[in-house]
């Protein structure tokens, strides 16, 4: 996961993150056992409707400026490492 997120972690951090992730997964297993059959499904706990602002177009970076500090570029786009094989 650290490699995919492009994070540098040492061996001590890897061990700690493995323990933390195991704890999170164990907690998720506990939550999976909770009977929620009689609970109404909700998306939000508050009934907010149309809270978005109108779009306000403004100036943006040109392509060259946006790509200037990219580690790799392909044409006019950021080039990123393959994350998943197509197989």
Short note summarizing the structure:
The protein is mostly helical and 87 residues long. The chain is built from 2 helices and 2 strands; from the N terminus they run ααββ. The radius of gyration is 22 Å and the shape is flat.
Question: SSE order, as H and E?
Answer: HHEE
> Into how many domains do the coordinates divide?
1
- The coarse silhouette is flat
Helix/sheet category: mainly alpha
Number of strands: 2
The percent range for strand residues is under 5%
Q: Largest sheet, if any?
A: 2 strands, antiparallel
**Share of helical residues:** 25-40%
Distance between the termini: 20 Å
State the helix count: 2
Average of the residue pLDDT scores: 89
Write down the Rg: 22 Å
Poorly predicted runs of 5 or more residues: none
Plain-language structure description:
The chain has a two-stranded antiparallel ribbon with strand order 1-2. It is flat. The mean pLDDT is 89. It is built from 2 helices and 2 strands; from the N terminus they run ααββ. The protein is 31% helix and 5% strand. The protein has one domain. 0% of the residues are buried. It is mostly helical.
